[in-house]
Amino acid sequence: MAWLVTVLALSIAAAIGATTSSRLALSLGLAWLLVELGLRTRIGPRIKAIAKEGRALLALGAIVPSLVLGARASTFAENEGLYELAPRLRDRARLARSVAIAPPLVVAGQRQSFFVRAEGAGTVRVAFEGPELEAQALGHGVFRVDLEPTAEL
Fold first, then answer.
1. pLDDT digits (tens, 9 = 90+) for 41-77
2. For residues 14 and 64, is the Cβ–Cβ distance under 8 A?
3. 3-state secondary structure of 95
4. How far apart are CA 120 and CA 112, in angstroms?
């Protein structure tokens, strides 16, 4: 049954133009609901037969929706903030290794978030050749300060 729900979810996601994780989850929930409702009707035995014996056909049926969703992968990654994930993870690892601010460089014309580790500090203020910016406490001695590209450096 999982194959059938998966292929149906992929088809629904491709049809509705899913470019966020919430739409993918909605597609999966709707597919599961449709299969469950179908099993409770007179076509239930046919659905079970397709799910049991038609795995190759289901796999072929998954190709087109998978290609459609694959073509939208960059939009999905942008909507979910996945392009920024690797740099943020590197910054977090760097921050955990030393008492520092991460990332170590300021990039002009681009919004950036900086993380500061300051164990035992109640507040942290950071200055980048301009007015001081108040950092937001994240817990466990870690603070975040957002630098907007319009901010004067």
1. 898 888 888 777 877 777 777 888 888 888 888 888 8
2. yes
3. helix
4. 25
